[in-house]
Description:
alpha+beta; 21% strand
Amino acid sequence: MPVPFHPVRYAASRPWAKRVAHLFEHGGKTAVADCDALLRRTLQAAPGGVGLDATRQEAEGLLAQAYGHFVRHGRQLLLCDATLGTALAATHPPKALPAAPTLPLAACFIALPDGCGAYVHSDEEGAWRVLMLAAGFAQGNSAWWQQNAEVLALTLRGGDSLQLPDIPAVQPWRAALLSLFKHLALLVQPRCLLAAASSPAEQAEALRRGELPVRRLSWEGDLVQSEAFDKEGYWRRQTTGAAERLVWVPPR
């Protein structure tokens, strides 16, 4: 049986998930502050000394906010189709973001091929707030306070370098981050298609079952379907007038 996607595991493992969802769907500008207050009260009453662990407090706060933005903007879960996923895996990650990248969605969860995943949302200043989650997040039947919430938070802005620093904190996340960077660069491509994998009625039924409607990422045009490409894909910068954009050259 496949492991459910991270947002489903979060909703099933955190007893405050429904309250967080309600705050972000109906709470307006005070949602983040109200969510923080809710977490403080709940964690203080949690067993196992969780409420006294500053690292755990921070992780749970970041998770709650990321999940809240995900819910507020329609629970959009993105997953590459098989052909695009294979081509993207055979592509070098970009060295930097374009100068003014614009996500097609205000918030989403990107399922990565290595079992990790990332919540992504755009803030009021246009920066991308990213929260990476490890593959083993909230698996099994043990209570949430007995599980380590492995997360990594980062903020990306237009023009930022995507070269990873050689520091111990980043190394466990290296493969997942490189995969994420390729997915983010893909999302700003005009030929990237975001298609619902099911009808609106099927999506509504999936939500009632506690599942998530998936939006498949595909590519407008032919991609070589191969596990062994002769040439790896890459990203190049293209200047048009005063604007600069990132262009994907798929593997061949």
